[in-house]
Design goal:
- This protein has 14 helices and no strands.
- The protein is mainly α.
- The chain binds iron/sulfur cluster (SF4).
Length: 256
């Protein structure tokens, strides 16, 4: 079982019947991979690029932050150029993505910190770090919280860590592994406990895709969901619909 995320977050596993849930999440991972593969979701292999990409992605849409990232990297082609740039010039590049002043200050500060602490090739330095060092370093950068740090570590540094986004926590609540109605923060601190060893990335990206396509926030499509036999919410819903249809059929037969 994978405890790396919990160790980095300094948490103890707080899920009852943990072993049972891990087996179930192993089955869920198998089905997600069979359905979707392990998509990149636009994330970048290079951890230095991924850091800036994630900072620009805050509170905006996919298309907007992809565009602002492309504009930023076209304008500033080296870390030094970014570290030395005036904030106003960075703002002009990324203004379409919202929170431009705040993000521009963060981008400049991050570029300066990366250059000062890891030199002109921070990617090599980041790849040499242990999980603990990478997590400490990344969460020390302006604009990167624990979830963003875990994303960089999972997507670009290949650590077996499990960031929890809103899609992941929504599906986990519906499946029934955690109670509904807690704060999102609580899910980020507990759900890594059910992830089997080595399956973090498959589960994370698979659940994100599933949450965007099938298990939608308002109208989950349980009838066509390949997880519905493993999901408490889906089972209840389909049973209810089945009962409803049965009741209608019975009424009709009696009417005849
Ligand atoms: S069965 Fe329904 S609620 Fe459960 S994961 Fe599938 S779509 Fe979501």
């Amino acid at each position: 079982m994978s405890d790396l995320t919990l160790r980095l977050l300094n948490r103890k596993p707080a899920i009852s019947r943990r072993r049972v849930w891990q087996v179930r999440f192993g089955e869920i991972a198998d089905r997600l991979v069979a359905a979707y593969g392990v998509p990149l979701l636009g994330n970048l292999d290079d951890p230095t690029q991924e850091i800036f990409y994630i900072v620009l992605s805050a509170k905006t849409t996919d298309s907007q932050y992809r565009r602002t990232y492309a504009l930023l990297t076209a304008e500033f082609q080296s870390l030094s150029a970014l570290a030395d740039a005036r904030v106003a010039k960075i703002v002009r590049c990324i203004v379409g993505g919202g929170l431009a002043n705040k993000k521009a200050r963060q981008v400049k500060l991050i570029a300066s910190r990366l250059k000062a602490e890891l030199g002109d090739d921070p990617t090599t330095g980041l790849r040499r770090m242990s999980a603990e060092d990478a997590f400490d370093f990344l969460t020390g950068l302006p604009g990167l919280g624990p979830k963003s740090a875990l994303c960089v570590m999972m997507c670009s540094l290949n650590f077996d860590v499990f960031p929890v986004d809103v899609n992941v926590s929504r599906i986990a609540q519906r499946i029934g592994v955690v109670p509904r109605g807690l704060k999102h923060y609580d899910y980020t601190q507990t759900l890594p406990a059910v992830v089997p060893l080595g399956r973090s990335k498959e589960l994370h990206v698979g659940l994100v895709v599933h949450g965007r396509t099938i298990c939608l926030p308002r109208k989950p499509m349980c009838e066509r969901c390949f997880l519905n036999d493993l999901c408490n919410f889906g089972k209840r819903r389909l049973r209810g619909k089945g009962d409803g249809r049965q009741r209608k059929r019975t009424r009709k037969t009696k009417g005849n």
